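Troubleshooting entry. Yesterday's outputs looked truncated, so today I'm pasting the complete records for two proteins to confirm everything comes through intact. If either block looks cut off, that's the bug. Protein one:
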Amino acid sequence: MLSIEKLQVSYGKIQALWDVTIEVPDGEIVALIGANGAGKTTLLKTVSGLLSKQSGSITYDGLKIDAASPPEIVKNGVVHVPEGRKLFPEMTVMDNLLMGAYTIPLAKRSQRLEEVFGIFPILKERMGQIAGTLSGGEQQMAAIGRGLMAEPKLLMLDEPSLGLAPLFVEEVFRVITEINRSGVTVLLVEQNTQHALTLAHRGFVMESGRIALSGSGSELLADSNVRKAYLGL
């Protein structure tokens, strides 16, 4: 389980997170929703070691990880797929995937590649193609595939459907469900609130760096404030 307690994070003198407390139980999909600038990406970056906390704690599987380096956090099974995909555009799809496998033994990489190709068959067809020439949806698949190459126990996805055509949006959410059913816990940051909460076992609403509301996915979908603010209903 990922446990975040009373987390506070600042960018210089500007505080971004205020006493954020959330739990992500093993085996679940947990959605984190909120407007742009609410602090969702900051939270993921702090969990993955890219930002330092001011105070509070982050533990995973009982191990304190809030002072660990990003490579150590990945080795412990926590993998972050960032917003905007962040592929290496001049490298091939295969090389991008292998960049995600640096924490696993060489002997396991071929097997892991085949597992990722089983989820994303299109990547096997495109493995020799330069990543920057892929469509937006294919790039997102490559980004998720790169994250999966590290054999995550917890996969953190930041806006995986952003900017994608509707057909690819449906495919991304189908794949997230498949990944979760394979035993991977998912922390999902997503502005497509309807999709995210329909998928999620539970969710948290973040506003201005604070957790404003939490509940099961179905409870939040039925909440009048959530429906008004994020669904336009």
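Protein two, checking that the full record survives here as well:
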Amino acid sequence: MRYDALLPALALLLAVAPPVRAAVLLPGDLGDIARGASVIVRGTVVDVRSGWVDGSRRRVQTIVTLQVAETFKGSPGGRVSFQVPGGVLGRYRSVTIGAPAFSTGEEVIVCLGGKAPALPYVLGLSQGVFRVRRDDASGQRVVVTPVLLADPQSAGAVRRGDPARRPVSLDQFGVTLRSALATARPAREPAAREIRGGTHQ
């Protein structure tokens, strides 16, 4: 079979194919995400449950509830619940690229957006979640920076496993976060945004 004879048919197939929607997650910096948030809290996950969105049985979301230990921004009260795209319902699993996963009992700092009466959501997906861990060597509680969170001082590419992403103490992270919130730059929705588009034919 001559391959050059297949080229016209392949070109025709690509020409009539429906557009492909691409989702690109751009890294943001802590200041952008913090200033774009309506609520920022540190707390312990006390409940994680998934369900269908609006009873449509087409999309799954997970509702996460935190017992609030510290508030950096907003007035959420003693508990705050927020939505995360995707989740697990029985044997059915829905996955959204970049969406964070939560486990009961873990300690996190979350940057939330949205306005009542809608349920808040995590800004920048995983970039709006900071995990609090206890360092095995020092016993100190530290904050782990999300993989995609950009260092505002660095113009280089964001690299997974970058040694510059070392955990920082919880106290130091709180100072950095409050400093970012106190800056005079105008607030905007975080640079960690999803850009949809990219038609391929």
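Both blocks look complete. Sanity check on protein two: Residues 28-152+163-184 form a domain with the OB fold (Dihydrolipoamide Acetyltransferase, E2P) fold (CATH 2.40.50.120).
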